[in-house]
Every structure is written in C-alpha cells, then in structure tokens.
Amino acid sequence: MDTRARKGTHVKGMIELKIAYRSLLKRPIRTLLTVIAVILGVGLFFSVNVATDSLEHSLYLHLGPTEFGNANRWVYLFRGILMVLSGISLIICVIIIKNLMEMSKEAQIYEIGLLRAIGSSKKSLFLTFFFQVLIIALIGMILGLFFGYFLSYLFFNPLRILLNNFYALDPTFEIELYVKDFTLILGMLAGLGIPLIFGTIPAISAARSNVIAALNQRSQARKTNLHKLRSFILQAILSISLISIGIFIIRIGFAGLLSFTSDPTAETNMAIISLFFAGLIFICGSVLFGTLFLPYISYFFSTLLYPFLLKTKKICYRNLVKNSRRTKNTFLMISIGLSFLITVNITEHSIEAGIVPGAHMRLGGDICLSMYYSSHQRIIPLNTSNNISKISHVSNVCEVKNSHYNTNYTTCDDFGTKEGEHMILFVINTTSYVQMHSSESIYSYTGDKSFHDFIHQLDVNGTVILQDGLSSTIQKSEGQIVNITTSPAADWFFPAMSVNLTIVGIMGIMPGIRFTWDEDLWPDETEFAAIISWNTYFNLTGETFDKTFANFWIECDDIYQSDDVLDEISNLYQTLGNPWATIDFSAAWSIRTIVDEITGIREILSLVIVVVVAILYMAIIISMLGLITSMIMNINQRRNEIGVLRSIGISKYQIMQIVFGETLVICAATLITGIICGITTALLISNVPFMAYTPIFFTLRWEDITNISIFMVSLSLFASIVPAIKALRLSIIDAIRKRGM
Amino acid sequence: MRIHKKKYLPYLGSKDDVLVLKDIHKIYDLGKTKVKALNGISLTVQRGDLISIMGPSGSGKTTLLNLIGALDTPTRGSIYINGKDMMAMNDAALTRLRRHAIGFIFQFYNLIPVLTCYENVELPLIAAGVDKNTREHRVLEILSKVGLENRLDHKPEELSGGQQQRAAIARALVNRPSFVLADELTGDLDTKTGEKIMEYLVSLNLSENQTFIIITHDIDVARKASKIYHIKDGRFVNS
Fold this sequence. Notes:
The structure holds two protein chains of two kinds.
Chain A: H1 3-9, H2 14-26, H3 28-107, H4 109-117, H5 122-166, H6 181-207, H7 211-215, H8 225-257, H9 266-291, H10 294-304, H11 306-309, H12 313-322, H13 324-363, E1 367-369, E2 380-381, H14 384-388, E3 394-402, E4 410-412, E5 421-428, H15 430-436, H16 451-456, E6 463-467, H17 468-474, E7 481-486, E8 497-507, H18 514-517, E9 526-533, H19 534-541, E10 549-556, H20 562-575, E11 592-593, H21 594-637, H22 639-647, H23 652-687, H24 702-729, H25 732-737
Parallel strand pairs in A: 5-9, 6-8
Antiparallel strand pairs in A: 1-10, 1-11, 2-10, 3-5, 3-10, 4-7, 6-9, 7-8
Chain B: E1 17-30, E2 33-46, E3 50-54, H1 61-68, E4 76-81, E5 84-85, H2 91-101, E6 102-105, H3 117-127, H4 132-145, H5 161-173, E7 179-183, H6 191-208, E8 211-216, H7 219-222, E9 227-232, E10 235-238
Parallel strand pairs in B: 3-8, 3-9, 6-7, 7-8
Antiparallel strand pairs in B: 1-2, 1-4, 4-5, 9-10
C-alpha cells in the first residue's frame, strides 16, 4: 500500500485506541465481568428512574392536573429513596472500574516503562488507558440503559401497591412505560460520566509513572514513611469528615421527619431522602475509616484462619498488604453494600419492634372505640364499660371523653381564641391509662416520678396535665393555675364550663391523643391538648358515672383477638337494643383495631423492605463481580509466584488454599467492618427520636446477621472458584516463564 | 475393546544414579506444525555430579530442564529419578517428587516477594511438613553456609542480585534434594558476583556431595562443571 495513502488514513489517537482495544480483548474474562458490573449498576440506576417516570406519567394521565399534585409528592419520595439506593450500585461500579484500571496499570507497568523509554508521550499513555475505560463505559452504558429499561417493569407493581397504601388509587390504574428525556440523559451521564471520571484517575497515574520504576516492574517509586503517614492522615480526615457529615445530615433529616404527617411535603421528602443519603455517606465514611486499619484486620483474620490457611498464612496476609490498593478497593466495594444491607435489616426489625407499641399508642389501646383523629365521639353510655370489660380477652377499658375541637370551642388561657389555634381537653381514667401504657415507650414528661405517679397526680380534684407545646405557648409551668373554658356543643355531649385548674405535669406525647404526637395534622394550624381525670370532670360538671357518655380505649390480653372482641362489642350493642344513638360499626366510622393498624404498616414495611433489599443484594452481587475480577487479576499478576511455588513442591490444594484464603480474609474483614458499620448506623437511626407515631426500638437479630455472614462467605467462596480454577490450571512452565526462569 | 495399560518398569541401574534419561523425545504440537524440541536424549547423572548443559538459543535445553524438573512429560522415552519412573507418576506424586528430590535455581531468583529471606528458604520445608524446630535449624544452617545469616529478615527487594541468588540456592538446597537444577543462574548477575555464586556451588558440590545440573550458555560457568554436555537441535552433540 502507498505510504502516503496509509499516512492519510492515520487518525490521531488511533494507535492508543488499538492498544486499548487489544488490552481489553487480551483479558476477556476481566473485561466481561467489568462490563457486566457497569451494565448492572447503570441498569439499576436507570430502571428506578424509568419506573418513577412511568408512575408519574401514568398518574398524571389517570388523575388529571388537579389531583396529580397530591399524589406526585409520593412519587418524588419514592424516586429519591430509590435513587439513593441505586446510587450504591453506581458507587460499587466506580470502585470496580477504578480497581480494574489500577490493576491494569500494574499489569502493564513494564509496557508503560517500555513505551515511555521508546519515546511515547504521557498523553499517549493516558489515552491508552482512557480509551480502555471509554470502551467499557460505552458498552456498559448502552447495554445498561437497555437492561434498565426492561428492569423497570419489575418495579411497577411494588410502586403501585406502595402508592395505593398512601394515596387511594382506582383499581383500574395501571402504570405505562414512559421515559423522560432528562432521565435518559441522566442515565447516559451516570453510565458514561462516572466511569470515565473515576477511570481517568489511574490513567493519569499511569501516564505519570516513573520510567525506571516501571521498567523494574514496580508500579511506583517506593513510598517513604512520610508519604505513608500523609496518606494515612488525609484518609483519616476524609473518613471522619464523611462520618460527621453523615451524622449531621441524619439529624437534619430526623428533624424534618418530625413534621411528617399522612402526606409528604417537599420538606419531609427531602428529610427522608437526605436520611438515606446521610446513611450512605456515614457508611462510606465508616468503611473508609475501616480501611485505615485494614492491614491489622487482615493480619488478625489471617491468624484466625490459621487452621485453614496452614502453611500459606504469611503469603496470604502479606499479599493483601502488599497490594493494599487493590485490597482496599475490594474491601470498600463489598463493605458499603453489606453495611447498608445490615443497617436495613436491623432497621426493619427495629421498626417492626415498634409497630405494635406504636399502634397501641396511636389507638390509645388495642381497640379505639372513637375516631381517634378528631373530636368526634361515640355517644355511648359511660357505664357500658362494665359490660365491655366482661367480654373475653378484654383486659382493660379506659373510658375517655373529649371537649369539642375547633377555634374558640375550647381554650386554655388565651390559647384557642385565635384563628388556627385548636385546643382539646381529654378526660381519662387514670388507673386504666397507666395500666395500658408504660413509661418505657415514647412519652416524655417532667419530673422524676414514675409514669404511674405522674398520671395519678390527676386524681386530685382540679388538676390538669398540659402538653409541653401548650405549656410553653401560654408560658405556664407546673404548680401554676390555668383557665380552661369549653363552649357548649350539644352534639358532642361535653358540657360548657370555665374552670381554673392547677398544672401538675407537662407531658410530650399522650397516648391516644393524636395532636400530641402528630403536631402538624393540619398545615398552618396549631393543636394542643390537656388531660384531666374523671374525678375532676364529675366535680366540675356534676355528672355521674351512670349519666354521661364516653368513648373507650380497650386493651386485649392478645392483640390478635382484638377483631373478635370488636365483633362481641357489636353483638353487645345489638343485645342492649341500640342504646348508642349514633354508633355504627360500619367501615365508614373507622373503628380501628390494632390488627388493622399493624397489618397496614407491616404490608407497607415488607414491600419497602423487599424493594430495598432486592436493590442491595444486587449491589452486593455487583461487588462480587468486582471481587472475581480483582482475584483473577491477582492470579494473573502472580503467575510467576504460583509457578515457583508449584516448582518447589507446593501442591495444587495449597495453591487453592492461598486463593480461597485471601478471599476469605478479605471477606472476613469486610464482614466485621460491615457488621460494625451496619450496627452503628442502625443504632444511630434508632436512637434519634423521629416519627413519634412509629417508634423504633433497636432490635439486633444475631440469627439474621449470621445468615447474612453465611451468605457473604458462601458468595465469596463462590467468587473465588473462577480465580482458583485459573490458578490451578496454570502451566507451571508458562507461569515460571512469566518473568523468565 | 481391551485397553492395554502401559507397563512401567523399575529402573535396574546403579544406586548412585539419581537421574537417568533414556531416549527422550519431546514434540510440541502447534496445530499445523510440529516442533521437535528433543530428539533422543539420553543422560545419566550420578550422586555428586556437577554437570553443565550448554547450547544455543532454541537448542532444547529449557525443554530438557522442564522434563528433568518434573514440570513436563516427554512425548517418548523414560525418565528415572532416584530409580523411580517419572512417567508412572500422577500430579500429586510429581508434586511430592519436586518437593523432596529436586531443587530449582532460577535465572531471576524468583523468590516470593512478600516473604523474607528466612521465610523463602523455609517454604519448601513447610511444604514437606518438616517440624518447626528442624526447619529453624536447617534454614539457619543453610543460610549461614551461603553467607546470608545477617539477612534473615530482609525481603527480596532489600537484597542485592547476588544475595537473592544465594537465597535462591539456599531454598533449592534446604530440602536436601537428590539434585539441583540451575537455569542460567548467573545470567542476571555481574561477572564477579556470578563467579562467586559458581564458587559456592562448586564448594557445596565438593563438601556436601550435592548433585548439580547447570544449564547455561556461558562457557566460563560451564567449565566449572565436571562434565559438560552440548545440546543442539534437540540432541547432545558431544560431551
């Protein structure tokens, strides 16, 4: 061919592209696994966005522009949470790409030195590595978008069911696939941009390699102790900063969640999303902090696994330390997903542990024979409680009554007189109230009395306990006198009165009284409550036990019998010949039992957990692909070492021990870090008071942690099979010749 | 159809013969072409021999080394190591053979980079299941013989080329093998250090009656041996 013609076809960068392309082809398994990891990561990220796009679009078509706004707030919430979760996969992909490029640089270090020695420019070397990432990112991005497009179908049903729990949807509502342009661009940016940015760092490092060190097959000039100390300090600062930022955002997120009501607002959405985001930052920081001690952790586990590693302990441990960057990357990508998985697992059980007490607190008992969220009352004779308490499985009945709720109907000093100020006075049976609720739950009250003594202060005639917000609003505290006035409201059977009562206590959350735990029930309105005893009520009004009406909070000896108890109350109502003029046991009256309450929450929780855990397991699987890639590269780089070991009489079984041993040590280090980080994050979540009506009791199930650990170890051993087989199949002669015999 | 199992006959030669090669042929099948690397090599090495095998590049000396080192098997012919037919051995037996009967010295030392000088030498003893006290005694003894008693805790990268090669020699000898195979052992060293290394080998040969088979293309190295074999086109041309 004519030389000029050949020159004419030469495009700048073509040779680098050719080298990059051939380098990838030369290591097909490693390239394939990395591409699969990118496809899964990008696919997962894109799929959650497509799913929420489709939900949003279908909702708009279904509800029309007027109603759409309310429902769409939930979609934003779902999108935010899912994006943060799928972000974990992207982070893992980033680490895999970075790891691949770093190992690729180490594997080709001699070539790099050679190319530099014969006059290749730094730019040319950079391009060689950059093109490798570009090819992987391009293929991964394109296939990932396709994969994500189809994967999004899997999210349709859970999203529809989830939304339906919060926002009643027509049964005919179906989600149609829809992709916004922005989502497509976002997916492309994530798929292409993130790998390129993080793959470029090792490419720059390769271009800047020291020629002599490279020709001597050392990836970099030896680090001095000062360099090592500087890296250590920098990493410590970075990880502690991330942990601090995580804790800071978690607290902001929780503060936002305190105002969470039945519908999300932009603020509460941000709070929940930031909570997940903060969790991720906290975990990343903690895991990064853990890498500072990785050599010690590796040594500890190498020693611990001594019976398994036997003769190869030192080789195993020192290789992990020698290839610290690879070990660190592998450790990071597995432990992030694992930590999140453990956090989610513990949080799930912690929420689960709080469901029954939470529902009990919200309803005031196991059955709420009133509309617990407003002042509407059942007009039931108070003495009916005698009949109710005789029903089997009923362990306690708390008679309760409340004043009319609206501006100017009930006031406490001057609170309740202005527009938007609402006050409600509750009358409770102090004995059963104390028996049905405990101080170990979520209530906070002043003084150091027991919960029993605190509530029984109301037995003294003319006493009242105020909600803390009310106390601070009217600026009155314990021991002071407060004026409470109720207006006549015949429909609600609460008499008019204006009385001065002595404040005997200030309480944060009052079980059964929604305003105290759901402060922003109505936007731009303030609601407060106070409680008095029946004793005070009878003295003030002159009514008697046989001649007044009330509602009931009922406690059962077995919460799962509460539906049966309600049926019996309904029968009693029929037997007594309908003495309760307005009571209606139909659904419209929403008489709720604890079973209704917990079933709904458990359904939502389990659905959320299934989606979250599925995403996290996918993240872990992606990280396992990274582990396989890393171990294969490890074997390739140590071919000569394996050859020498085999030549001096180390058996195939012992070589396999080295491979499995290294994976096991990484896995064990990852596991212990993941467990510590996961438990810490879950502890942090459960210790901050949020969403008062859904308390979280830190619950650690060691059997679940054991199962996750077994899963991880099995997965790691499974991930070692390919590298181990590769190591076993190495021809001793070829392996020794890797550097020359 | 009956399958006739090949019969492996025991070697009936002298007890001093540590290695016997009989009419060894090695043919590499490269798909369309077949390369004859060895073409009827026969050799007997006796205890205490120090022999060198010389030849130009591509003559077949590396192939021969692989076969003697139990790293590869011949296409035709028999190899007896300590009177045992290597062809009758499975992979595990070959591993045991390498572990107990053969010592290797490589051109590029090939020490395990993450292990110290002491640990590198100790490794074959660990593989052989030798107890800790015996290991310690033997490692210190052999390292002292090669003059590395002050470099026990140094990693290979902290040793000079000559020191690394001495460590490699110590590793090859520590298991008291029947014979030691050395492939271009001075190839990566300067002349002076190379000479010193050869002096070590000769002295060990004389004092310990240790058998050495040295593969080299350096005539000065080859001259130190008691027997020199020249290999060309896969066969010995004269000796």
